[in-house]
Amino acid sequence: MGNLIHPDFKRSAKSLSGELSIQSLHKQYRLERNYLNVLENINLTILPGEFVSIVGPSGCGKSTILRLVVGLDSDFQGRILLDGKPITSTSTDRGIVFQDHRLFPWMTVWENIAFALVNSDLPSAEKRDIVSLNIKRVNLTGFANAYPHQLSGGMAQRAAIARALVNEPKILLLDEPLGALDALTRLYLQAELQRIWIQHRSTMIMVTHDVEEALFLGDRVVVMQANPGRIKRVVPVPLEHPRDRSSPLFHRLKDEILADLIDTDSTAEAKRAKSLALRSDLG
Amino acid sequence: MGLVFLKRLKGLVLPLVLLMVWEIASRQGRAYALTFIPIEKIGRSLIETILSGELLTNLLASLGTASTGLLIGGTVGLGLGSLMGLYPRVDKIIGPVFHSFRQVPLLGWIPLIGLWFGNGCLAKTLVVCLASFYPMVLNSYAGIRNVENNHLEVGRVLGASRWQTYRYILIPGALPFIFIGIYHALAFSWISTVGSELLFTAGPGLGGMMQTAQMAAKMDIVIICVASIGVVGLLMNVSLAKLSGHLLRWRSTR
């Protein structure tokens, strides 16, 4: 990290691709005979190289959006376009990191990361270079031959990030990537994620429960609400990276977003959202 | 080091005690000596059968039957178990037939197999195939079904083909179960080899050698056969444990 990064760095030449456009997206689940609206009329355009955080109560469909964008689920109405092309299935131009690291326990760190290149046409020497570069990128040098069970949660998650980065995806999706980690590791990895984002310059979308984390990393924070899952508000974060968590604006934005999350109608849902927001405040 | 050595010796205590009891029993008179053959006499016969090549020929024949049967039955079992685990439709079509066939004890097939395939090598191998087939089907099925959907999703995200998914995700994910299958298949194949040799007596094999010796009242040879079968079985188990320890080294040791 170190030097200050201006918000307009993302308009640099390398990151002209990676524009995600979500247009009138609807998704329903079928529960026996009833339809449950998981996502209702989601419209969101994410610029190339932009970091967007999504916060919202459980059940607001924020992780579902990522599953749709990555292509694991194609049962939706509306359009999802990456650089103008509709998304139909999974592809290596989109990477994802899940909350559970999902490394294959039978592969070493090296093998796990290299597996992401299983269908790449690159010569094997080049593949080796790419894998070791990405291991270095997430600071796991020296652990290439370790098996996942030998790693701490934070290290495993970093290996998962490396695996997602290996194909140089245009867009990286982060589904509560730090949610299962302890508070200290989380702070450390937030800084790491920011460093990787700055170096990698790809578009990133991160779903999180933690409002502070969303503000620390995001150029914009999308606040969602549940039943049906929809976007309540999109909050721009006009602060330079790396952000000072103690700055007055940071605090004001945090309070605003927390208020947004708590301020839903006074139903049982509201209580649930409130407790969640409070928890993420503590976290 | 010394302690480890002593610990290993512990396993030898019981066999040594049994040998001593055996030897004492054999010295209780002529009648006893017929059933409890003196160890010294067994030793002499052992050297004889080794030098004449009789033991080795029969042992190799048995090992050949066991490994052929294990390889064929195990591979087909792994294939069918995988298919049933992967495709519910295959499971629905083949499952009921498989599970009803499985209820018939191996011995129940002997008359039919004898009728159709004679009482030679083919019949024996077929029995062994069946013996290793069942546990491999059951365990590879369970193993494939047990692979986490989370891991399969990673394969989809990374664009793995069907074969790559099978080779790099499903098989390794199912490997702990598959090894349980191999353990059972190995034990059953060895047991059924000897069993089928006792029943289908044509051709060489430890079972046949035992049968012949019994009819000639050569109890020392019978005992040598029994002991060889036990020792070989033990060696197989130990080497498989080593192999599975290596291939499953990625599992955390609790």
UniProtKB/TrEMBL annotation, chain A:
Q: What is this protein called?
A: Sulfonate ABC transporter ATP-binding protein
Instruction: Give the family this protein belongs to, as stated in its UniProt record.
Output: Belongs to the ABC transporter superfamily.
Q: Which InterPro entries match?
A: AAA+_ATPase (IPR003593), ABC_transporter-like_ATP-bd (IPR003439), ABC_transporter-like_CS (IPR017871), ABC_transporter_ATP-bind (IPR050166), P-loop_NTPase (IPR027417)
* Organism of this sequence: Candidatus Methylumidiphilus alinenensis
GO MF annotations in UniProt? ATP binding; ATP hydrolysis activity
* Top-level division of the source organism's lineage: Bacteria
Keyword ATP-binding annotated:
yes
Keyword Transport in annotation = yes
Sorted keywords for this record are: ATP-binding, Nucleotide-binding, Transport
Annotated ABC transporter domain ranges read: 20-251
Recall the taxonomic lineage recorded for the source organism: Bacteria, Pseudomonadati, Pseudomonadota, Gammaproteobacteria, Methylococcales
UniProtKB/TrEMBL annotation, chain B:
Q: Which InterPro entries match?
A: MetI-like (IPR000515), MetI-like_sf (IPR035906)
Q: Which Pfam families match?
A: BPD_transp_1
Q: Specify the superkingdom.
A: Bacteria
One GO BP annotation of this record: transmembrane transport
Gene3D superfamilies linked to this entry:
MetI-like
Membrane-crossing residue ranges in chain numbering? 55-80, 165-191, 221-241
SUPFAM superfamilies from the entry?
MetI-like (SSF161098)
- List where in the cell it is found: Cell membrane
Entry membrane topology: Multi-pass membrane protein
Q: List, alphabetically, the PANTHER family matched.
A: ALIPHATIC SULFONATES TRANSPORT PERMEASE PROTEIN SSUC-RELATED, ALKANE SULFONATE ABC TRANSPORTER-RELATED, MEMBRANE SUBUNIT
Question: What is the protein name stated in its UniProt record?
Answer: ABC transporter permease
Species annotation: Candidatus Methylumidiphilus alinenensis
Recite the lineage of the species: Bacteria, Pseudomonadati, Pseudomonadota, Gammaproteobacteria, Methylococcales
